[in-house]
Fold:
Amino acid sequence: MPTYDISGFAVYQVDTSNNNSLFQGTTVQNFTFNDGVGDSTFELGDVLGVVSGNNLNYLGNMSVPLVGGGSMELALVQGAASFTDPNIIEVLIVVPTGMSVTDFIFPNPIDYSSRETDAFLTCFAAGSQISTPEGTLAVEALRIGDLVKAANGAVPIKWIGRQTVSTRFGPAERLMPVRFATGSLGDGLPTSDLTVTADHGMLIDGVICHAGALVNGTTITQVPLSEMGDSYTVYHIETEEHEIILANGAPAETFIDNVSRRAFDNYSEFETLYGDVPEMEELPYPRAMSARQVPHEIRARLGPLEPALNWDMPLSA
Structure:
């Protein structure tokens, strides 16, 4: 089931009949939401918890400005407060663990009617936990210059690429989501369900294996596009050199430029910061890009691999 750990939230009283809202401040409080369903998203109306007998429903998501510039998509959850007027609800804008309510400029008031109601991804956007010297941080909470743990010690993040993927016409196969169940790679790894794109490399027994090549239909599975909403966002961590870092405890590669950075939504940011750069040199590991290239020993340990991916492609409009 998807879970979402938070460190706090902003509180609003919203009249859904006329969109009027009242900002009531922020609260620092650790809490874990989950919807009890075996997918990777929170969807409109999902019950994420119960407090004092009141359901905490997922209401959508909203882009909130960051104090240091830029913005971030945050989930909206219905609070436990109740009112005599049934049109009035308590709305919480929740902040993921690894960040603080003080990192955001919460709008006052909010335009509740303009919120996004697509599925909220708890793995790609807000669930993948990256190991840093100070502990784990959600991938979307990381910033340029932050240190992440790599094989040879801590290294700074050079850039974080963001790419919005539309599911309407069927994304490129390399961008399809693959979910690793807890412990599916052995030795208890990953420590919690991990979702990456099909072309993302995981280091297993000295081989960088693309996630799509490891699908076995049981513990490593294709995520149906029907779970992903109209679109989803994937994050790519780039360091100065190609590195192996830890995502939910599992060894995973950082960005390597065999895919153009121009595909990212924020490519202009990289261009402004760095301009033209030489091609990166890959780590000296063999790479298995398809199931038939995965060594027999790995196949035997992870379970029978499916020879081809077959996502539920939506019909074109």
